[in-house]
Amino acid sequence: METLHVTADADALSSRAAQLISIGRVGAARPLLAAARALAPPSAEFTLICARLALASGACEEALEELDHGIETAPSHAGLRKCRADVRQRAGDLDGAARDAAEAVVLDPADPEAKAILGAVMLDLGYAADAAACLADALAAAPSNLDYRQAFARALEKAGDVDAALSALTDGIAQSPASVTMRNAAILLCIRRRDFNRAVRLGEEARSLGIADACTFGMQGHALSSLGQHDQAGIAYQDALKLGPDDTYVRHLVMSSGLMSDSQRAPESYVRTVFDGYADRFEVHLIQLGYRIPSAIRTVLETHPKIVTGVPIGPVLDLGCGTGLVALAIGDLPLGPFTGIDLSPRMLAHARAKQLYGTLREGDIISDLASHEQRWPLIIAADVLCYFGAIEELLGLVHQRLEPNGWFVFTVEEIQPDHDGVVPGNGNWALQRQGRYVHAEHYIYEAVCNAGFRILRMDRPVIRQEAGADVPGFLLVIERVRHDG
């Protein structure tokens, strides 16, 4: 009888510790588990609680040690395998996580959680179709589980079946209309597939249900802006800002929504204000978005006839130089000295700290090109023409400032039809979200040729990612014709 009484006390201590862990009171749970361990031999359930405690403390290795020992003692316990799969996945041991999850499925084939864990690991390993199959089984067994449904949709999307992914999410919304995460996942997927009308409808449904979420409103504004409905986008962004008043990105979106859709370029005051506020996180944010234009520009400059033969080129003019990312990417080539121009004094401060520029000037690039008569063998504009709709004036000024056979290397974002095949804007260019313009290939070609340039190279790089989707664009190398003007 004495032993039974002690064991009951150990169970009570373990149960109370589990409750404390679930509400985040890790420090209070630890002595209870230590006392329980001293009172009775550990069980599989006790091991799971200890592993949860270690995870809550950020100690993955400690959790693995607990689980390794527990599985040695109880190798047929599916719960221990599931938990170790989760810990291994967090630790980056995906192969080990897959083995444990698969073993858990074998041990308990009717357990949807085991199949969901295996599906999540398979997705991380890049086996999207296998992941979707596992998650489909998990969802069939637990159709009301929203986490399984969202994971299933992610797997379908990764497997290339975007329509099925969206259908899975909309079915989930029908089951749980108030689920903000499910609705936001569906809106984001609509934006990725450029189905902006449907994204707007999902956002409006959220409003009608009384859902107030900054992310929902922000994405609704994103979709409205992509449709050219900038006034309505501004309302959505303002609502998002009310719910997230300290979000600098939403503030940026509110500012950009105030631009006129027929404006031929972004106002100087807007560009300066945006990038002054953005300067300190600019480079980190671009890296997160997979920004790859500086390295792409380096690649094309390495083909310049002078650089190929080791002849230096300079001086070099960097229009809209920002924090100096392009100069950083090409600074070891036989180029320079560099002159950078930018509207934002805070961006220029970051460029100055890199000590790559001989001269840095604060100002509008149109005004600077018009007022300085120096000619250049190379002018660069990385991710700058996206703040211009009509580009004829800029190209004309660049032509005047290039030496004969001088190169102008620049990027633009490509205009894209939406899911219904509608091309936004005037057919040549359109104002999109975040105050950026996108351009049509035929317009770029005509504007470049009419300005007196010859196109030497026109690449189609992915400029960055936005909402998890690629942003396509053009990287052009154009040459000022020697005999022209």
CATH architectural type of the domain at 275-480: 3-Layer(aba) Sandwich
Most strands sheet:
8 strands, mixed
Determine Rg (CA atoms, Å). 29 Å
> CATH fold name of the domain at 275-480, please?
Rossmann fold
Query: What's the pLDDT, averaged over the residues?
Result: 88
Structural class: alpha/beta
Helix proportion of residues, in percent?
55-70%
Low-confidence residue ranges: 1-7
Description of the structure:
The protein has 485 residues and is α/β, with parallel strands linked by helices. Helices cover 58% and strands 13% of the residues. Strands 1, 2, 3, 4, 5, 8, 9 and 10 form an eight-stranded mixed β-sheet that branches. Helix 8 packs antiparallel against helix 9 (146-158) and helix 22 (365-371) packs parallel to helix 23. The protein is elongated.
List descriptors.
alpha/beta, Serine Threonine Protein Phosphatase 5, Tetratricopeptide repeat, 485 residues, Rossmann fold
What is the fold's blueprint, element by element?
Blueprint: H1 2-22, H2 26-39, H3 44-56, H4 60-73, H5 78-91, H6 94-107, H7 112-124, H8 128-141, H9 146-158, H10 162-175, H11 180-192, H12 196-208, H13 214-226, H14 230-243, H15 248-257, H16 268-278, H17 282-288, H18 293-301, H19 305-308, E1 316-319, H20 325-330, E2 338-342, H21 345-353, E3 357-362, H22 365-371, E4 376-381, H23 392-401, E5 402-413, E6 429-431, E7 437-439, H24 441-450, E8 453-459, E9 462-466, E10 469-480
Parallel strand pairs: 1-2, 1-4, 2-3, 4-5
Antiparallel strand pairs: 5-10, 6-7, 8-10, 9-10
